[in-house]
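Duplicate of #3305? Posting structure anyway:
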C-alpha cells in the first residue's frame, strides 16, 4: 500500500509518519529527510537542494521526483511505503501517477497560529530524526541519546515562505486527490495519540 502524507509545515507529518510506519510495517520515505541527509553528505542532490531548502523554497520537481523514484524502486518498498512530503506540486503528483500511483492520501490539517508555535519550538534529534516541541522536552538530549538541534528552515521568517508555497503549490493537490477519491483529511490538533487515532480511523473508513 502506498500512502501519501500531505499537510502544511509543522502539522505533525513526521511524528505521525513515524507511528504509522511502525503500525503498518512499511518504510517511511521523507523527502525532507532525504534532502537534509544529502546536504550533510555533500552529494550532488544535497548541493542542488541547498540552494532552495534554507530559503523555504521547493526543490525543482524533476530533481525530487528522480530521488523518490529511485528510493521507491528499492526492495524494501515492494509491499508499499509511506511518502512524507512528496508530492508537493501537481507536476510531482502527475509524475508519481506514472510510476507509483498512491492508494490513499492522508491530509493533516492545522491552523496557522498552531503551526507557527510548533515550528519555532521544534527540536530535532540528529541521530534518530524524531522531533519534539520545547514545551514537552524532559532533558537536553533525545531518549536515544542523540543531540537535539533546530532546523535551519524552522524560523518564523522562512516559515512564512514555506506556508505561502504550501498554499500556492501544494493545496491544489487536495482537489486533485479528492477528485480521484483518494483524499482523507484529519485534524492535526490535539495530542499525537489523538491525531494518530484519527488517522487509523480515516484509513479504515
Ligand atoms: P520538510 O522536511 O518536508 O518540511 O521539507 C523541508 C524542505 O525540503 C522543503 O521546504 C523543501 O525545500 C524541500 N522539499 C521536501 N520535499 C520536497 C518536495 N516534494 N518538492 C520540493 N521540495 C521539497
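Output from current build:
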Amino acid at each position: 500500500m502506498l500512502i501519501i502524507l500531505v499537510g502544511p509545515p509543522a502539522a505533525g507529518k513526521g511524528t505521525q509518519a513515524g507511528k504509522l510506519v511502525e503500525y503498518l510495517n512499511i518504510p517511511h520515505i521523507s523527502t525532507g529527510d532525504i534532502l537534509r541527509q544529502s546536504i550533510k553528505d555533500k552529494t550532488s542532490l544535497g548541493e542542488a537542494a541547498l540552494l532552495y531548502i534554507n530559503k523555504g523554497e521547493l526543490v525543482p520537481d524533476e530533481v525530487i521526483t528522480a530521488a523518490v523514484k529511485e528510493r521507491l524502486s528499492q526492495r524494501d518498498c515492494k509491499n508499499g511505503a509511506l511518502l512524507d512530503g512528496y508530492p508537493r506540486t501537481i507536476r510531482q503528483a502527475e509524475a508519481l501517477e506514472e510510476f507509483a500511483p498512491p492508494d490513499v492520501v492522508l491530509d493533516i490539517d492545522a491552523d496557522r497560529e498552531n503551526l507557527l508555535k510548533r515550528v519555532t519550538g521544534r527540536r530535532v534529534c540528529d541521530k534518530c530524526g524524531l522531533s519534539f516541541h520545547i514545551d514537552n522536552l524532559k532533558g537536553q538530549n533525545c531518549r536515544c541519546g542523540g543531540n537535539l538541534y533546530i532546523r535551519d528552515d524552522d524560523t518564523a521568517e522562512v516559515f512564512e515562505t514555506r506556508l505561502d508555497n504550501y498554499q500556492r503549490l501544494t493545496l491544489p493537490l487536495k482537489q486533485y486527490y479528492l477528485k480521484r477519491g483518494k483524499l482523507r483529511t484529519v485534524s492535526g490538533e490535539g495530542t499525537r495519540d489523538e491525531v494518530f487515532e484519527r488517522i487509523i480511523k480515516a484509513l479504515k473508513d
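Confirmed duplicate; merging threads. The chain has a mean pLDDT of 95. Residues 156-170 form the longest helix (15 residues).
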